[in-house]
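A reminder before we start the practical. When you read a complex entry, don't treat the lines as separate problems. The point of joint prediction is that each chain is placed relative to the others, so the output describes one connected object in space. Small molecules and nucleic acid strands, if listed, are placed in the same frame. In the example below there are two entries. Take a minute to note the order of the lines before looking further.
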Amino acid sequence: MPTKEVIVLQDLLGTNKKIAAEIRTELEKRGILAVNLMSSPGAGKTTLLEQIVVRLKAEFHMAVIEGDIETERDAERIRAKGVPAWQITTGGACHLEAKMIGRILPAVDPGLDFLFIENVGNLVCPASYELGEHLRCVLLSTPEGDDKPKKYPKAFITSDVLVLTKADLLPYLPFDIDKVVREALDLNPKLRVFVTSAVTGQGLDELISHFRRSREELRGRHA
Amino acid sequence: MHELSIVASLFETLLEQARAHDAREVTRVRLKVGLLSGIVPELLASAFDMYKKGTIAENAVLEVETVPLEVRCRTCGVESRNANFVLTCPSCASVDLEIVQGTEIFLEKIELEIDERASGKTG
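Here is the predicted structure of the whole assembly.
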């Protein structure tokens, strides 16, 4: 039986990258800034989003896409704040993929200012899948420990923003905030770092200002 | 652990290639996996073995080449290999770097067994 060698040279994440690029361009044309939030489960993504949307909703239109393995719970929490939300339940998959966002996009109001996407709680796999976002935020909560950036480098290397959450717990935890920031910046010197607490409100205005500036820059590029 | 979804995408390509070349079987599959691809080669191999049963690649051997992380400095142009994921230029300390390789999951080449009876066919 004759054999034949075939050179293929195909990126196995190429399909996802292509769909993500299409989504990014489409959102950009409409002036919508898309933000992808990644973290381990329990770092406070939904709580942070609740705080962000209540502070932005008087001035801006936004929507939230929630990714979880099961349940509609997170989308319900966002809707309770008066902001439209879609729930993607992956049924076991550990990350969102661009095609899942693409399926929801036709239902999303084209006049939005911000689209927030909360990824499945996982500090590993979501980092490999672009969703068409303009800003990628990785959250790290203080109870998780200050050793995480070096242990899960890809999430920190591929992000634009690091949000340290639950800063109100710092007095009770052996969490070296300088070490975390130093190690995260070693991995990715361009990372913008925000120290926040959804309980006290610390750092939230600064983070929101960064989102607003990023949106203005995006609109400036298409003015 | 998303190696299985990578393998699912790999098998779509394998089927397309096998069909395009009138192959009876895929006998060898060679992948290039970047150090920063987020893929663990051992898990990829297990996922491949699990997935291949009953497919055209049932007897295929999987080879995985690990690709180191390489960055190029946008300030001084120096290229460097990076084992510790410290993204600072070793030559000029600039932080404006672009990743040249090391994040990819690439299907490089495959070996097919060709059906001789089919190879004479037209269309």
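Discuss with your neighbour: The CA atoms of residues 69 and 85 of chain B lie 8 Å apart. What might explain this?
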